[in-house]
Write a structure and sequence with these properties.
Layout (H helix, E strand, L loop, with lengths): L1 H69 L2 H14 L3 H28 L1 H9 L5 H26 L3 H26 L3 H21 L11 H40 L1 H35 L4 H28 L1 H8 L7 H27 L3 H26 L1 H27 L5 H23 L2 H26 L10 H8 L7
Helix pairs in contact: 1-3, 1-5, 1-6, 1-8, 1-9, 1-10, 2-3, 2-5, 2-8, 3-5, 3-8, 4-5, 5-7, 6-7, 8-9, 8-13, 9-10, 9-12, 10-12, 10-15, 10-16, 12-14, 12-15, 13-14, 15-16, 16-17
């Protein structure tokens, strides 16, 4: 009994660590997302589907440009800072931080100049005309600011200052929302690119503010030290850069396919569905990148412990994501109207399919981090190439045959294929096998999503909504009944603890 009790307490502690880190990052992400929703809502009302589509295309161009020019330095910088912090070597931390800062400035300048010079071809590729070239050239300023903001961000995250990271995220989101709304309100579509530049500037300000609270000694950076650190940063950053470029490149390609097939208004509907589909799971995926990946890296050579951690992360992620995605499917027409307007009605079926894809994505991502934790950069790169090829290929076929809805189905199809591939690869890499609890949980959630999606697609409005809400209620009960068993008991507020235990039929004294 004693050993069993110790094991249960240890398991509860591990789950507590996962949930605690997700809570800190997740809360800041939820606030950021709420402000993003407000920002998008205002843009939708002021600009309509065409303006939102324009905003989405410019934003993807900026993401792709920053991903290429940034060379993955922010992500590799986090790792290098974390190693120096673990060694408690403040001189080393200062050296790494200064190298990241100078390298980011250099890469930012190169990226901004190249985007300005290539504005014409990028405009033709994206919009079919050079008319948007001046606006794309102006995006170079936003690209520069985005890249140099990665330097203070890497220092904060690598130092594991999660509180500062959360506050920085919220402050940046507040400033971004204010400047975007003001500029678009007064300038209309002409303010779209200016708002992206202003948002990059305010995000940089927020990052600088919190990074300066980390007191480091002055480091004299010699060329030999700079070049040596740069080689490490660029070498490690390649896998991250490749992943980011391929992901954003696929996003741009699909928006271009939608635009060419159905016009800019359809691209606006796709952008609306994409933004809403990723909102609920955004904080889960962000937490994986912020805290789960470093913890997993420390266990990379202990396959049993690493595999257990992946299973635990996947379980918590599914329990948190499943009910919200089901509710979004059931209430998709109301969700679109609430966050946008009735003019975005064509986004509803796309949103439903994206929710299925997002659930599959939550299941696959923890396994994918095993590849990075093991340092298998080539394997990671080629899985990303394959995923991009499958995603764009499916979208090309399905958009041509099914129209806008095909873009959503392509995303779900991608993660059916990608999840199977990653499972096979990590099985060979670390002997990873899904726990029986996770197999059962994933099967139940997928069944519930299929029922809710089928009801929403094929039954009259009210009947489909009621069935979807019924399935969502079952999923909420299922998630709650498991979460209370893995949460540390002290995390559940004592006034509501008896009620929650009664609802889910849990008796902790007999556990």
């Amino acid at each position: 009994m004693g050993a069993a009790g110790d094991e249960q307490r240890e398991e509860s502690r591990r789950y507590g660590d996962i949930i605690k880190s997700m809570s800190v990052i997740g809360l800041s992400q939820m606030i950021s997302i709420a402000l993003s929703i407000l920002r998008i809502k205002v843009l939708a009302v002021l600009l309509g589907p065409t303006g939102v589509g324009l905003f989405g295309l410019y934003n993807v161009i900026l993401d792709l440009g920053a991903g290429i020019a940034g060379m993955g330095v922010q992500s590799s910088g986090v790792r290098q800072v974390a190693i120096a912090v673990a060694e408690a070597d403040t001189a080393r931390i200062a050296l790494v931080a200064q190298t990241i800062s100078r390298l980011s400035i250099l890469l930012g300048v190169i990226g901004a100049v190249l985007l300005f010079l290539l504005a014409g071809p990028v405009s033709v590729l994206t919009f079919g005309t050079e008319a948007n070239a001046p606006a794309i050239g102006l995006l170079g300023a936003a690209l520069f600011l985005r890249i140099i903001a990665g330097s203070p961000f890497a220092l904060i995250q690598g130092s594991r200052r999660m509180g500062d990271l959360a506050r920085m995220t919220v402050l940046g989101a507040v400033l971004n929302t204010v400047v975007a709304i003001v500029l678009v309100y007064f300038l209309g579509e002409a303010g779209v690119v200016l708002s992206l530049v202003a948002m990059a500037f305010t995000s940089w300000l927020a990052a600088i503010w919190y990074a300066r609270q980390i007191k480091l000694p002055r480091a004299k950076l010699r060329w030999s030290s700079f070049s040596a650190e740069t080689r490490v940063l660029l070498g490690l950053g390649f896998a991250f850069m490749a992943s980011g470029i391929l992901t954003v490149g696929a996003a741009l390609a699909i928006r271009v396919l939608v635009t060419q097939h159905d016009g800019l208004e359809a691209a606006g509907n796709y952008q609306a569905a994409w933004a809403l589909g990723g909102i609920y799971v955004g904080f889960i995926l962000q937490a994986m990148g912020t805290d789960f990946y470093p913890r997993l890296s420390r266990l990379a050579n202990d396959h049993a412990a690493a595999n257990r951690l992946v299973n635990e992360q996947a379980r918590v992620s599914m329990l948190l994501a499943g009910p919200g995605l089901l509710a979004t499917i059931a209430l998709s027409p109301l969700v679109i109207i609430a966050f946008y307007s009735s003019a975005f009605a064509d986004a509803v079926p796309v949103l439903r399919w994206l929710c299925l894809g997002m659930l599959l994505r939550v299941m696959a991502w923890p396994m994918g981090y095993l590849i990075l934790a093991k340092g298998k950069q080539a394997m990671f790169f080629w899985t990303e190439v394959a995923a991009t090829t499958v995603h764009v290929g499916l979208a090309y076929i399905l958009i041509d045959t099914l129209g806008l809805q095909g873009a959503g189905i392509a995303f779900a199809g991608l993660y059916i294929w990608h999840g199977v591939l990653i499972n096979i690869l990590v099985g060979r890499l670390t002997g990873f096998v899904w726990s029986s609890e996770n197999v059962q949980l994933a099967s139940l959630f997928l069944l519930q999503v299929v029922v809710a999606l089928g009801a929403a697609e094929y039954l009259p409005g009210l009947e489909g909504v009621l069935i979807g809400l019924g399935v969502t209620a079952v999923a909420c009960w299922m998630s709650l009944s498991q979460l209370v068993r893995i949460f540390p008991e002290k995390w559940i507020p004592s006034p509501v603890r008896p009620l929650i235990y009664r609802v889910v039929g849990y008796r902790p004294e007999t556990a």
